[in-house]
Specification:
The complex is a heterodimer of chains A (about 280) and B (about 210). Chain A is built from eight helices and seven strands. Chain A is α/β, with parallel strands linked by helices. In chain A, the strands form two sheets. Chain A has a five-stranded parallel β-sheet with strand order 2-1-3-4-5, sandwiched between helices. In chain A, strands 6-7 form a two-stranded parallel sheet. In chain A, strand 3, helix 2 and strand 4 form a beta-alpha-beta unit. In chain A, helix 6 packs across helix 7. With about 210 residues, chain B is an alpha+beta fold. The longest helix of chain B has 16 residues. The chains are: A alpha/beta (about 280), B alpha+beta (about 210).
């Protein structure tokens, strides 16, 4: 690695909620220690090579940001946008309080908004807030230590039945599961009340595996109960335990309910001629 | 025989000391920008659209608070594009929660800083279904219709004769209903339709 050059940084708050500001403080702490890369926070933009901007650029901060940018020495004049708000306006992008002159009010494909309305930006670090590693990665990329990893993607989702010819054309697949899609969807929605989105899929996958095993035997109700109990004894996480019990009860309730609905449908329309 | 670790064990196995690769004696400064590291499995990185499973229903577009996901309509060419931009994304994971096919996948990707915003854009282009009766595109994609066929059991499709109507636009469906009712005016009503009509008349103007 060649010799690094020191960058002196001036930090501007363009109306941020202070989440990103605290993360900038974090990267200056001994654990992440951005100062070993030669970064130093200076008290005036006249000494700075790099401008750290946080916040979505409110009307009040527009003049201040412009003044800070013009006060910097003209040569490197690098601008780093830290946080989702500074990259694109964030959740405030269509607020009345923001300065956003993009023609589509931030709804174009690049989601323009934020400080890029008045100053050119050299590095976007999105995140709400970005974790200290993300900021370290952005600064390291500016200094040439790390390389860019993101790449824009354009997929063409083919309709079912068509074969793909090109690289970005993707065929449609519905994953093979031991239970019908209808049961899977309902169980997934019900499970949201018990565990969050993150554990939900893992727990449900374990459960439908057990259901697939249970339906191989003669008495699936008994067999599933045994399997779930076995899982219950082995698992240490009590949330997963509760979720498995909940899923077992919910599954048999659904089986009964759907059978009743099917019968009611047949009673209502004995001859299926169409309505 | 080594069994695969369960979900909760996988979550606990992440160790910062091991991942960042420094000695346990002096864990003061992370060697990060000079090494490669991984985030813990529950870290909320940017989500990723899996184009194999995506049906283009737009549930994620409805749920997204900052409009990082937007549906671009192009009815003339019969396509709609689901566009995702990580520069607007706040990692709330609402899209992952509402996705009916599991196409929105959580990742632990954190190295996303870039100098060009086009690197953050992800687009999935869907083909709309075509109504041959009136020569217009539907609001639904062909994948959505295929998914509905997989969800609903066969009996419901038969009872409501959905197979004939599933690829029609709303106007065409209404037109067909009117034609059918006019035909029925001159005919003898089936038993179940007489009951329905009687109920309506009691509450109506007659």
């Amino acid at each position: 690695m060649g010799r690094l050059k020191s960058v002196w940084v001036y930090h501007v708050d363009a109306g941020s909620c202070n989440g990103c500001d605290i993360e900038v403080l974090d990267v200056l702490s001994p654990y992440y220690d951005i100062e070993r890369l030669g970064v130093k926070v200076v008290p005036t933009p006249r000494h700075a090579d790099v401008l750290f901007i946080t916040g979505p650029l409110t009307r009040q901060t527009r003049i201040a940001l412009k003044k800070a940018y013009e006060a910097m020495p003209p040569k490197p004049r690098i601008v780093v946008a830290i946080g989702t708000c500074a990259s694109s306006g964030g959740i405030f992008y269509n607020s009345y309080a923001l300065y956003n002159t993009s023609p589509q009010r931030g709804r174009d494909r690049l989601r323009s908004g934020g400080p890029e309305m008045i100053v050119p930006i050299d590095m976007y670090i999105p995140g709400c807030p970005p974790s200290p590693e993300e900021i370290l990665y952005g600064v390291a990329q500016l200094l040439g230590i790390k390389e860019k990893k993101m790449k824009g993607e354009y997929w063409i989702a083919l309709p079912p039945g068509e074969k793909s010819g090109k690289e970005n054309e993707i065929e449609f697949t519905i994953p093979d599961r031991p239970i019908p899609v209808r049961y899977w969807l309902t169980l997934r929605e019900e499970l949201r009340r018990v565990v969050g989105y993150y554990d939900r899929d893992a727990v449900l996958n374990d459960f439908i595996e057990l259901v697939g095993k249970a339906f191989e035997s003669d008495d699936p109700r008994e067999r599933l109960h045994d399997l779930v109990t076995g899982y219950f004894l082995k698992e240490k996480d009590s949330r997963v335990k509760v979720a498995m019990r909940f899923l077992e009860n919910e599954f048999w309730r659904l089986v009964d309910e759907y059978r009743e609905w099917g019968e009611a449908l047949k009673r209502k329309y004995p001859v299926t001629a169409g309505v | 025989m080594a069994e695969a670790p369960s979900h909760s064990e996988k979550l606990k196995s992440w160790d910062r000391m091991k991942v960042e690769g420094f000695s346990k004696k002096a864990p003061v400064t992370t060697p990060y920008p000079f090494t490669d590291i991984e985030k813990p499995p529950e870290f909320r990185g940017i989500p990723h659209i899996n184009p194999e499973k995506c049906i283009g229903c737009g549930a994620c577009v409805q749920a997204c608070p900052p409009d990082a996901l937007i549906m671009e309509w192009d009815k003339e060419h019969g396509v709609k594009r689901l566009t995702y931009n990580a520069a607007r994304c706040i990692r709330c994971a609402r899209c992952i929660e509402v996705c009916p096919t599991g196409a929105m996948e959580p990742t632990t990707r954190f190295e996303i800083a870039t100098d060009n915003k086009e690197d953050l854009v992800e687009v999935v282009e869907h083909k709309l279904a075509y109504c041959e009766e009136c020569g217009e595109y539907l609001d639904f994609t062909e994948r959505q219709i295929e998914y509905v066929r997989n969800i609903l059991p066969k009996e419901i499709f038969d009872a409501y004769a959905l197979e004939d109507r599933i690829k029609l636009t709303q106007e065409e469906k209404m037109r067909r209903t009117v034609v059918k009712l006019r035909e029925l005016e001159s005919n003898v009503y089936p038993a179940f339709m007489l009951v329905e009509k009687g109920k309506e008349k009691k509450g109506g103007e007659e």
